[in-house]
Amino acid sequence: MIELGYYSLVLCWVMTLFGIVALWLSRHQTSTLRQTGYRAVTASFLLLTAASLALLGLLATHDFRVQYVAAYTSLDLPMVYVLTAFWGGQSGSLLLWTFLLGLFSFLVVVRTRGEREQLIPYAAVVILVAQHFFLSVMLYAANPFAAVDVVPADGRGLNPLLQNFFMVIHPPFLYLGYVAYTVPFAYAIAALIAGRRDSEWLRASRPWTLLSWVFLTAGILLGAYWAYIELGWGGYWAWDPVENASLMPWLVGTAFLHSVIAEERQGLFRRWNFALIILTFELCIFGTFLTRSGIVTSVHAFADSQMKNLFLAFMISTALISIGLLVYRAAITRPARNISTVLSKESALLAVNLLFLALTLAVFWGTMYPAFSELLKGEKVSITGDFFNRVTWPLALAVIALAAVAPLLSWRASSPTSLRKGLTWPLVVSVLFGTSLFALGAREPIAIAFFLACCLMAVSMLLEFVRGGRSRQSTAPGQALLPAMVSHTVEHRRRYGAVTTHLGIALTFIGILASSTYTREYDVTLKQGKPASFAEFRAELVEFRERPEIGKDVVFARIRCYKDGRLIGETQPEKHFHRKFEQPQTEVAILPRLKEDVYVVLMGWEQDGTVFARVNINPGIWLLWLGGLIILAGGLIVMLPARRQAATADARQTSPVSFEAEIVTQSSKLE
């Protein structure tokens, strides 16, 4: 099994190199050599599949002759975590990344063979180059099949923080998002190499762009929820460097999703779109570099390794080649026309793009400043979350406000009267909402401004459904509004999937603002028979004891919580002491409620049975998770095939359209 896995990687390294040469030499004409290159893509995918299955087999059989197996599994580890140790370490996660690249290159070649023959060979070469790089990294610096010097009787086991359901699914989703962005990047480079003046590369890459965005969004949300329930500090986003590494390509990828609309509809932003997808790809590689280079400190990062220089060389070389191609093809990437007026949809799209890039720059600078400071000055500094909050919140506020207004604008020029008419009801509802918040005691200016902007955006999106229903009523007299809205939404589900996504974003930000601005924290001392009161809450200790489990000892406290004298539930926060790991693990207890979460952490105890707990009251946090689910639902709906070919054209004529709706054509399958 060890030899099968290792030599599959070696053979795959040779096969990808052969595929690169064959496809490059056959780029000018369809030939036997091109078909051979395509077969090399298939062969490399099969070899990566064999290597991946070999590693899974070694993990499942606890073959401790392999360093990776001994480092990340143990005999007492549940099988689900044994298998997910595949991506729990450095070399395994690189193999997963490379396997996904192989899968996507195979899908690109198989599903588009005979189509777009001016683009596919170049695109396949680009993907194979990335695949070859990751294979080289594994064979040179992170071999997942490397042997141990002395075979241990048992392995060390998986980090207890990773023994969580959400950490089982979070990394694959994140990697799917990262890796899938290689495909639109490859199509963009292929278009530049081929000198294509049209937007065919956008149509070819559109499903992959949407797929990448949905997976990356899911990965970020799953990671935030894991941090909330596992790390025990009461929050879900700490502006950790590796968290930021996933946020940056998401920001630029979202800008790209919005920007391509202007090119497809009006011939604008051609050069800009190439630059955005190149930057998105580079940031995906940069995120992998941050995780593995050791230049930043993070709970998510792997140890310092010798692959830092390899990733730097790959990032710099691909960036220089991509920029060089973009400069070389400057003549064919000129826009068809320029923006004619400020009050137009294209102006709003440009503003949204600039704001997303400003957010990305702010996150990048805050993430890398400690490394820059140590490199240039020899001083170790730290950047706290306060810096990120001060810089990013105003920019995010502007994005949300624009997202609420932009769908009401028209191409080329908009009428101030029609814009004012479209904004009347959203503004009225937002002002009433803000007044209610002020009456309830909200005084923080940035929070109130955000709540108003999110309300404006949510109401604008809801009115999109109403306009669609009224449009349906005009063609089906006598039909009630609600059934008309439902039938119109089902018929034009891609467009309203985009509207749903924007609605989810508004709810998500309301949840973020409510939980981060108005959270309350209490340190509580408890002893049986001596309850503790804090604000409108009261807690009493029911039981405190220790129990042994396989591979660890567990200390837990059962605590009843009351609010305004009424029992709201019982919690059981725990501390786990794993025998193979020095650091104890915190298992929080959460009482989810409509108004707030009661978040309880066991902090310590004394021999006489006194328990010290920390209680966080996190208001409105359920809106964050609900909004995230709505975002993902909207993204998946956008990706569904349309019921009829005329759906998009009808949607454009009936009412203002949302950003992502315009990006989707009516192709019925993944291109």
How would you summarize the topology of this molecule?
Layout: H1 2-25, H2 32-60, H3 67-72, H4 79-84, H5 90-112, H6 120-141, H7 165-180, H8 182-194, H9 200-230, H10 241-266, H11 270-293, H12 308-328, H13 345-377, H14 385-405, H15 416-439, H16 445-475, H17 481-491, H18 493-517, E1 520-526, E2 532-534, E3 537-549, E4 552-563, E5 566-571, E6 574-578, E7 585-587, E8 589-592, E9 596-605, E10 611-619, H19 621-639, H20 647-654, H21 659-663
Antiparallel strand pairs: 1-10, 2-3, 3-4, 4-5, 4-6, 6-7, 8-9, 9-10
Can you describe what's shown?
The chain has helices at 2-25, 32-60, 67-72, 79-84, 90-112, 120-141, 165-180, 182-194, 200-230, 241-266, 270-293, 308-328, 345-377, 385-405, 416-439, 445-475, 481-491, 493-517, 621-639, 647-654, 659-663, and strands at residues 520-526, 532-534, 537-549, 552-563, 566-571, 574-578, 585-587, 589-592, 596-605, 611-619. With 671 residues, it is α+β, with helices and mostly antiparallel strands. Among the domains are: 1-158, Four Helix Bundle (Hemerythrin (Met), subunit A) (Up-down Bundle), CATH 1.20.120; 520-622, no CATH class. α1 runs antiparallel to α2 (32-60) and α10 (241-266) runs antiparallel to α13. It starts with a helix and ends in an 8-residue tail after the last helix.
